[in-house]
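Bug: token stream looks shifted between consecutive jobs. Job 1:
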Amino acid sequence: METNAYITFLVLATLLVVIDGQIIYRSGRRYLENSYGDAAAGASMTRLITVLFHLSVLGVLALLSTIDSGGDNATEAVVWKLGITLIVLAIAHGVTLTVLSRIRDNQVAERALKHPSPPAAAETTVAPVPGQQGGNPRVSPALDQRDPYSA
């Protein structure tokens, strides 16, 4: 791979990684803010995960850039390597989303254990008795075993 093609690949691949990392950071920050209860803690955890994402994907790209693609010309080589880069980026993105989801699930579960919510009261449907004007409502026929039409 000639030098211009090599540099083109590195610039384009790095740009893709940075853009995807920013998407993960901004979306992940909002995703984790509510689960931590503290916006700063959620942003901090998202920042750490985003840095891990950047370092791991850029490391894979550095290794990928040294592999000979075997293309006939420089353009084919760059396109081939960008295709592999997109696949690696998709896998890394999926893994990062899984990590964010697990962190959020753990935080929500921890919060539920610390602050259990009271059990919901059983809901009953109240309907008027057929044939009565205004009068006393009673439990709907679905919940009452008496025949609503026998008076």
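Job 2, same session, no restart:
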Amino acid sequence: MRVATFNVNGIRAAQRRGFEPWLAERDPDVVALQEVRCSPDKLPPGVFGEYHLTYEPGHIAGRNGVAVLTRERPAAVRTWDGEVLVRAPGEEHTHREPSPPGTMARGLAPFASEGRYVEVDLSDRAVTVASLYLPKGGLPAHLQKPGGREAPDGGAKYERKMGFLASFARQLDRSRKAARAAGRDFLLLGDLNVAHTRQDLTNWRGSAKSEGFLPEEREWFSSIVSPRTLIDVVRHVHPDADGPMSWWSWMGGAFDRDTGWRIDYHLATPALAKRAVAAGTDRPASAAERVSDHAAVVVDYVDA
């Protein structure tokens, strides 16, 4: 089973840059997408090939949007918003189906309509797969300075992200346990907007006070992974490597210098993580060949 997670930074832009050839060449069985950034009626025809599409676009025009592509129609779909677009290959309808959200963890309601989370039960394997786009956040008020990249906001974006992290940890625990009760492994895929360790970004010394590498964000990440709950699959396969990085700024030649961050993850329950036989990042050969500011993270799992 080949599984990919890919923040495409806008599916229409990604299509122009080569998303379809990437999808055909890599031929994954499951693909989680983040930042699809497109209303259902504007999805490029045929962009997802012969895959079944499960898409939670959210209700913020031109932002967010998460999806899962599968070989077969999922056995079940869950999303926080209560509606989801499900299409078979070749279909172009825009009707969203009801999707019972189940019990949502306290604190997630403000994020429910933003297109940040969807999970599916695969129909051909005993695995529940979730796609997540976690808020980018910002700096706490005491680290903000006038004249920075973003205007000071008193720590509002930081506080919002930290609230999401606390609530999502509870939700993640529920989803993992629900999958286990149903006899399924659980696999969280997506852009978590946190680099967990010093191995996960190039300039860790200079980023110690940057959003995405703050001590409290890294502590949160440590709290959701363990040998008995969820395992960072790429790090499990490459325990001593720096990276592999999955995001590089469009600016300043960051890609050419490989000055990047590893913020896109496969987090799997232990039995599934142990079946990973290959894991890495589809880093293009040159900046001109980039589909997105992220690269796909692809893992091959052997069947049980």
